[in-house]
Design brief:
Number of strands: 3
Strand order of the largest sheet: 2-1-3
Order of helices and strands: HHEHEHEH
CATH architecture: 3-Layer(aba) Sandwich
Strand content: 5-15%
CATH superfamily: SPOUT methyltransferase, trefoil knot domain
CATH class: Alpha Beta
Length: about 140
């Protein structure tokens, strides 16, 4: 993930994207999805666009994801919180607050794999927007 984050930050800077900041929350008291949602909401910057990673979300191609990032950037959205839930998913109250929901398909993925896939897609999106050779479609 760190490699993709660094690549994204280098490529995205010239495009008005980034930098990436990864924040992790932990429900140490094991109070469940609602408590985790409260922790996540507190970690999200004020005014950030909230996008959840959820199997019920919108399935997009890499170019479509890149275009969506560009639309948010061009609309002046400075902070984007890409929210990945824990083992039980994302609490319905947080899903309802989200501005957008993205899916990597109908299968459920462990959150650590989603992090890797998302970090790669962020880098891929930056290369698509910058006209780089990384994405071959």
């Amino acid at each position: 993930m760190d490699d993709y984050y660094q690549r994204f930050d280098r490529t995205g800077r010239a495009l008005g994207l980034g930098p990436v900041a990864e924040l992790e929350v932990e429900d140490k008291k094991n109070l469940g999805m609602g408590a985790e949602a409260d922790l996540l909401v507190r970690a999200i910057p004020t005014g950030a666009l909230i996008a959840t990673l959820d199997e019920r979300g919108r399935v997009m191609s890499s170019p479509e994801f890149a275009e969506q990032l560009a639309k948010w950037r061009d609309a002046g959205r400075q902070d984007l919180a890409l929210v990945i839930g824990g083992a039980d998913g994302i609490d319905p109250s947080l899903r309802a607050r989200a501005d957008f929901s993205l899916s990597f398909g109908q299968m459920v993925w462990p959150h650590m794999l989603v992090r890797v896939m998302l970090s790669e897609q962020l880098y891929r999106a930056a290369t698509i927007l910058g006209g780089g050779p990384y994405h071959r479609a």
